[in-house]
Amino acid sequence: MDIAYLVTRNSNHDNDGNGTDGVCPSDPYSLPADQMKPVLGSLTFHEFATILSGACGLASLLVISFAVFQHATNFSNPIQQRQVIRILMLVPWVALFSFLIVWQEGVGEYLVESLDFGCSIAISAFLLLLCDFVLANPGGFDELFGPGASKVAREGETADSPKWLKKTWYMVLQYFPVAIIMWIAMAISLAVGTYCGASNKPKFAHIWLSTIQVLSTTFAVLACLRFFKLRKAQLASHKVLLKFAAFKGIIGLNALQVFITGILVGNNVIKPDEHMTYHDIKVALPSLLLACEMPFFSVLLFCAFPVGVYKDGKEGVSPVVGPLMALAQAFNIMDLMSCFVRGPIRLVREQQRGIQRAMSFPLQVEGEVVEILGGKGTHSAV
């Protein structure tokens, strides 16, 4: 799906797809808003799409808010649950920006890259969650960092992460800074007139930014799948593929929809008229479809990341902090911003010291509660 994303971005263009004399082609059909004909009652397509995308966004927000509230009020495993909350928040993030893209026609293109940025946070949090799932198993530290790694860490000696883990770590986490840079680069190129989504000529930034984004996303997705394949035995009980598909399907489905829309537009099956402008078809329609799908993905994510294993009421399980502090920890993404520099082994050590300062907290491992005291026993860190 992510490989097709480059084709997706390049298929929505004018008939020759190349512009004229270095000038980006203008929209082939444009009427003032007051001259557009209604599509439903007295509502134009833009008005109808804005209302529908907003309603779907509110519906998905209600579901995800309940899921986040459940985790925040049962914050018994902060190391894992702050990553879970970050993944859950992808739905309201996408719903919000899909609504804004549909509503604000003039700046819609500037906001499209927000989807990649939101997904980069979710997939980075997902990698850290996978690491913690492995480390939550007895002997998980050695399973992740190699035989004898826990002994080396306890003795304070210098250790290094295995090559496969470092490769996976950086292939996934590069997506986060790249997404930020690409969003900024696209906004700048749009502002100065060098982007031109309607042209594939090398003189425009569109083809270059699209290529970088596709490669960055593909590396991150393949690295996550490789991690699962290499540690499948330790991750089997966590339904990792369901969790991964629940949030990655959002961007994948959006890419498919934009791709299909591009084909239909390119073959004049869908074309601008008195009901829909070129912007409505090229930018607003895929975002409207994505907004309408967010309630479904919110329910899927709610089921994929249940709160039951962390919930108060189990013996030895209780919230470590209150809901507000739990949300503050989840929304503080300094660990995601710094873990690319610190690397896996260093971040794990810092997490372990934090656990020791907190004295202990419980983990759910295959239906049993395991207690960490003073850094001994089962290690949970990402």
Automatic annotation (TrEMBL):
Membrane topology (UniProt): Multi-pass membrane protein
InterPro entries linked: Ostalpha/TMEM184C (IPR005178)
Principal location listed in the UniProt entry: membrane
Metal-binding found in the keyword field: no
Keywords: Membrane, Transmembrane, Transmembrane helix
Pfam families noted in UniProt: Solute_trans_a
Localization, UniProt: Membrane
Domain of life where this protein originates: Eukaryota
UniProt KW Magnesium keyword: no
Annotated TM spans: 48-72, 84-103, 115-135, 172-195, 207-228, 240-264, 284-305
Gene Ontology CC annotations of this record: membrane
Name under which the protein is recorded: DUF300-domain-containing protein
Native species: Bimuria novae-zelandiae CBS 107.79
Lineage: Eukaryota, Fungi, Dikarya, Ascomycota, Pezizomycotina
